[in-house]
Amino acid sequence: MVLETTTLVDRVPLPTVRRAREKHRAVNWLALFQGTCLVLIEAAGFAVSTLLLVLGLPLFVFLLIAGWDLTALFAQFGNLADHYRTAEPIAQRFFAQDLQIAFLIATGGLALLRLPAFLRRLDRRLSEGAPRHG
Fold first, then answer.
1. What is the model's pTM?
2. Contact in structure between 67 and 57 (CB atoms under 8 Å)
3. What pLDDT score was predicted for residue 31?
């Protein structure tokens, strides 16, 4: 009877030890700072424009329904405000919660729709400023 001393663990190749690099690349702090600033500015612009689009859409819809007549628009707002004022406190709370949820869903949905274009634009802007090697 032959005694097998090799196991599956023995057949796995051992990891090789990597030597540390002799030369370390110096970090370009200016380029890192500029890239970070660019990302922050682009992200802020994306967030602000998304919020303005979401906040402006209901105004556009109400103006469209009112036939672009500001008198009719404010009459409808006055009617809505009167109903809100005379409603029960629990109904007011539910209405406010519904508006908040609708705002969050609309903002998140629009942000998800706009995100691929934003990332492509950000990638293009970052690669424009990247130093060329060669």
1. 0.68
2. no
3. 86
